[in-house]
Amino acid sequence: MLRVTLALVSFGAAACGGTKPADPGPSCEAIMPHLAVVMKQGLTGHGTVEFGNQKRDVLQCQARKLTAEQRRCLMATKTVADISACNAGQSPTAPIAPVAPSPRRLPTPSGSDVPQASPGGSAH
Predict the structure, then answer these.
(1) Rounded Cα gap, residues 38 and 44, in angstroms
(2) Alpha-carbon span 31 to 43, nearest angstrom
(3) For 11-43, how does the pLDDT look when each residue is reduced to its tens digit (9 = 90+)?
(4) What is the DSSP secondary-structure string of 74-120?
(5) Other Cβ atoms closer than 10 A to 3
(6) In the chain, where the domains are located
(7) What whole-number distance in Å separates Cα of residue 19 and Cα of residue 99?
(8) Per the confidence metrics, is the pTM higher than 0.90?
């Protein structure tokens, strides 16, 4: 009887909003127009060319079943490179840390590169 009561209480709490559903992130209807703006800014010189069919693009976005994180990533994009970074699973506009050059080692002189010592001291 106690188990039945606990099960009913748990079910009632869930039905009344006891646990919130996970945030699905921005919708494809919001993402695709944003990506079109980013693409237009990144591909200047193309005049008033429209990028694709928005209805088709939204359907393709929905078919990809993007995670909430992927959706947020795409909405945060500012450049075409950012879009590529999201598609590769990276954050948009992630700063790339500079790589310090490795110290260059000069080769050790050998053979004809080695200066010859004068034999027997001074040459007077």
Answers:
(1) 11
(2) 18
(3) 444 445 556 677 778 999 999 999 988 888 877
(4) HHT--SHHHHHHHHTT--TTPPPPPPPPPPPPPPPP-GGGSPPPPTT
(5) 7
(6) 23-87
(7) 46
(8) no
